[in-house]
């Protein structure tokens, strides 16, 4: 199983983001149902025991609900293709939740994250030859700002390949638990 932990987006926000696609030919647009904010990519997990450890660690997350907003279009360079994305306004609550997810996954035996946390929603992928069009797309959408969305749970997703596209299937949801004591951040 190829796994990652993310914040799922509300349907209305997914629809808003889908409308931003515009007419940029040759872009491989991410289906709206796959829009999310990755908190931590885990990777391939084949050991059932490791999967149970991950599930147990994530079930112990503790935080108070908060809100976050998406804002500004951007480009992220990749190895094979670049990405069009919408950024996420960083908050102390989001950073603390991501840090807690990272710590929980390490305790479950996962390797440390390979990349620094840069929250965003990927909308599409394009080739370097389309850079000029991508810059225009970013300029058209750079003032975008979503209404605040509530963060009350995190989701463990499995990434599957189907007919050449990725399909993200929710495997478990870990909701805010008001009775769970808040875990202090590890240094």
Describe the structure.
- This protein has helices at residues 11-18, 48-59, 92-107, 131-141, and strands at residues 2-8, 28-29, 36-44, 66-68, 70-76, 82-88, 120-126, 149-151, 153-162, 165-175.
- It is an alpha+beta fold and 187 residues long.
- The strands form 3 sheets. A 4-stranded antiparallel β-sheet has the order 3-1-9-10.
- A hairpin with a 2-residue loop joins strand 9 (153-162) and strand 10.
- The chain starts with a strand and ends in a 12-residue tail after the last strand.
- The model has no long low-confidence stretch (mean pLDDT 91).
- Hydrolyzes RNA 2',3'-cyclic phosphodiester to an RNA 2'-phosphomonoester.
- The active site is at residue 36.
- InterPro entries: Cyclic_Pdiesterase (IPR009097), RNA_CPDase (IPR004175).
- Belongs to the 2H phosphoesterase superfamily. ThpR family.
- Its EC number is 3.1.4.58.
Total DSSP E strands: 10
Helix content: 25-40%
Report the mean per-residue pLDDT as an integer. 91
Give me the secondary-structure category. alpha+beta
Order the strands across the largest sheet as they lie in space: 3-1-9-10
Low-confidence stretches: none
| Beta strand % | 35-45%
Rounded to the nearest angstrom, the distance between the terminal CA atoms is: 30 Å
The helix count comes to: 4
What general outline do the C-alpha atoms trace? globular
Helix and strand pattern: EHEEHEEEHEHEEE
Task: Please give the radius of gyration in angstroms.
Answer: 17 Å
Quick one: biggest sheet? Answer: 4 strands, antiparallel
Motif (HXTX 1): 36-39
Enzyme class: hydrolase
Protein name: RNA 2',3'-cyclic phosphodiesterase
Catalytic activity: a 3'-end 2',3'-cyclophospho-ribonucleotide-RNA + H2O = a 3'-end 2'-phospho-ribonucleotide-RNA + H(+)
């Amino acid at each position: 199983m190829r796994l990652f932990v993310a914040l799922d987006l509300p349907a209305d926000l997914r629809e808003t983001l889908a409308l931003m696609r515009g007419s940029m030919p040759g872009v491989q647009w991410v289906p709206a149902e796959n829009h999310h904010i990755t908190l931590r990519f885990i990777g391939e997990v084949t050991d059932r025991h490791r999967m149970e450890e991950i599930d147990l660690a994530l079930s112990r997350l503790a935080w108070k609900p908060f809100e976050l907003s998406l804002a500004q279009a951007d480009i992220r360079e990749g190895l094979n293709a670049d990405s069009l994305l919408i950024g996420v306004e960083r908050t102390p609550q989001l950073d603390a939740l991501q840090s807690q997810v990272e710590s929980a996954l390490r305790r479950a035996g996962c390797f440390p994250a390979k990349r620094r946390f840069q929250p965003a929603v990927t909308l599409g992928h394009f080739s370097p030859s389309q850079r000029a069009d991508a810059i225009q797309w970013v300029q058209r959408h750079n003032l975008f700002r979503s209404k605040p969305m509530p963060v009350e749970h995190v989701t463990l997703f499995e990434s599957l390949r189907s007919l050449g596209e990725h399909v993200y299937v929710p495997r478990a949801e870990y909701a805010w638990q008001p009775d769970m004591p808040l875990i202090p951040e590890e240094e």
